[in-house]
Write a structure and sequence with these properties.
The structure is a homodimer. Chain A is α+β, with helices and mostly antiparallel strands. Chain A has nine helices and four strands. A four-stranded mixed β-sheet of chain A has the order 2-1-3-4, covered by helices on one side. In chain A, 45% of the residues are buried.
């Protein structure tokens, strides 16, 4: 397998975590999202991924795009260890938690949207940070409320082993810290995030641990 | 089962289509997203869905939020007729097509985002329309390219029976037309959309066919 990735892409980060949790070997092919206007927009990459987004997984000649689709694919092809519970209603809970992040927070705060706000709408840096924090809060508040109140929450988002919900949560909190979003009001999210980051699979998938990571804080 | 829905919510529209395709009975509980500042923000609804978004499905006391999670749940509980193919790589293709819409287009163009652009960023109506069209184009262009070029496309997005990709496509094209987005450059999407809308399940799920629909064109 080959994963087209970028160290700071949280969508790619999700897939890296799942690969590590499942102990799967996968070649990494970095796609630099910022340098020279972004390698993801070049014809060579667009031929593989017409959306010009990372990640893309290539497995035996099959090209799979969209991080949630890749995660479900890995789960179906390599069921152990399971990242989804077995009962439909519990699977729905995990997917719903994951999608609060993947469908409601991340799409509004990713690079191309921040670039549009600056370049097309002339939004100031201060307003851009407010935008970023606003959508994070809109997603993380109900997520905290659910995880704090729902009985199925355990050491991780669902029970005592990591699921696709944790796979989405940890990269999103990485981004929250990167954009100076205060996490004091989110004790359950922080507790779960810490439990995850004690695991090798999460540590090995972190942006800073990637071969294409750039050392300087704040750099792209 | 009970579905909390709003006639013009495209996320609820997806779930209505799946329910109809599978021939499942489901009570509909309308949540008016605009009237009095939005019923979805009231405490009564937030107790069910802390995000304050539609749809929510309640099945035997279980509350399920996030439309893609609901669709997967319905697929697992009521596998026939199948809205996902059987092979992992084909399931991944369908999910990836669905997610181009559900994770990349819709989150940027839904009501709460358009309200933020107006209320917080003072964006003009013209700029708001450009925003709307821009993100539609960013999603629909690669979707058209993939559907036109990939061999697994058939009468529908994947083969000759509807899948979750069609369930997401038709509501998104409804919204595109509603916001005057020209669809001339998308012949494959239009062809599939028409094939879908010949089916009763899609017709019965359309916004205008809902009990809470408001008759006046352009009204909310």
């Amino acid at each position: 397998m080959k994963l087209y990735t970028y160290w700071r892409s949280t969508a790619a980060y999700r897939v890296r975590i799942a690969l590590h949790l499942k102990g799967l070997r996968c070649e990494q092919e970095p796609v630099h999202l910022v340098k020279d206007g972004g390698e993801q927009h070049k014809g060579e990459y667009r031929a593989i991924n017409p959306q010009g987004l990372v990640p893309t997984l290539v497995d035996g000649g099959h090209v799979i795009t969209q991080s949630l689709a890749i995660l479900e694919y890995l789960e179906e092809k390599h069921p152990e260890p399971a990242l989804l519970p077995s009962k439909p209603v519990e699977r729905a809970r995990v997917r719903s938690l994951a999608q609060i992040i993947a469908c409601e927070v991340h799409p509004l705060n990713n690079l191309r949207v921040l670039q549009y706000l600056s370049n097309e709408l002339d939004v100031s840096d201060r307003q851009k940070t407010r935008w970023y924090h606003h959508w994070l809060e809109q997603g993380l508040k109900p997520l905290e409320r659910r995880l704090a109140n729902e009985g199925r929450t355990g050491r991780f988002c669902h029970g005592d082993s990591p699921t696709l919900a944790d796979v989405c949560l940890v990269p999103q909190l990485y981004n929250a810290r990167r954009f100076d979003f205060p996490l004091d009001a989110y004790p359950t999210l922080r507790r779960i995030d810490e439990a995850c980051r004690e695991l090798n699979a999460f540590r090995a998938s972190a942006p800073e641990a990637q071969p294409d990571a750039v050392g300087t804080a704040g750099s792209n």
